[in-house]
Amino acid sequence: MPVSVIGCGKSSLFRALKSLYPQFAHIESDRSANKRDFYKSLKDAFKDHSVVLADRNNHMKQHRREIFELFEEDFVNILVVNFVDPSVDKETVKNTAFKRIKARGKNHPTIDGHDTRKVKMILGKFMKDFTPFDIDEATTSNHVCELDLDMTEGLLPTTMEMLSCLHEHLFLEIPDEKEVFRTLMSGMEYRVPNKEKKFLQLKGKSQDSHKNIRQGSSKRQNNRSG
């Protein structure tokens, strides 16, 4: 379970893990219709997979509590991955995330990186709402452990740290750094299909609404002229 903000690299890291370990399940919140659908997908994934990557930021206590409660009776081991190092000042985290979001542009299911105003607004909200994880939050029967990463370090070192953690807990073989690098580079070439970009769908609906308003206005003017 990540504890992060947008632009921290969690989805890129998880895609790499899924590529390196095909037996993992990768469930993305951004591709879910809603929260209920996301939680259902997480539960269902454990029917066929022993490891499930829950790709959501979980930057608020409420989000984490819901995950803990979701698996309270399933005795699932939960690894909390802290992407935001508390020793790094917030402006550095914010600037790093902003640059990454801008760099990926429209290659994302929900955020248009070219819309600077929108990016600043969304990122600012995430930073404002972000609450670091406290182990006391884990009050359920699940076994919970933590991994601290620094999202400002770059994707390769954070991925290698994640792999070391998985090796420690799951005894998985760790690929060499060159293979991990190639996997990350391959993942960077992935392009989100336009039909899955929710911001394009919203933009289309907005344009249709404006068109209908203009057409309605023109009809009223014509009626008055007649």
Task: Provide structural commentary.
This protein is mostly helical and 226 residues long. It has one domain (2-196): Rossmann fold (3-Layer(aba) Sandwich), CATH 3.40.50. The protein has 8 helices and 5 strands; from the N terminus they run E-H-E-H-E-H-E-H-H-E-H-H-H. Helix 2 links the parallel strand 2 and strand 3. Helix 1 (10-20) crosses helix 6 (155-170) and helix 1 (10-20) packs across helix 7. It is globular and about 45 Å long. This is tRNA ligase kinase domain-containing protein.
Percent range for β-strand residues:
5-15%
- Strands of the biggest beta sheet: in what spatial order? 1-4-5
Kindly identify the CATH topology. Answer: Rossmann fold
Helix content: 40-55%
By secondary-structure content and strand pairing, the structural class works out as mainly alpha
Instruction: Give the ordered list of helices and strands.
Output: EHEHEHEHHEHHH
Distance between the termini: 64 Å
List low-confidence stretches. Answer: 206-210
Q: Taking Cα atoms only, what radius of gyration do you get, to the nearest Å? A: 21 Å
CATH architecture: 3-Layer(aba) Sandwich
What is the CATH C-level name? Alpha Beta
> Strand tally, please?
5
Compute the number of structural domains: 1
DSSP helical segment count = 8
- In round numbers, the mean pLDDT is 88
Principal-axes geometry comes out as globular
- Major β-sheet, in short? 3 strands, parallel
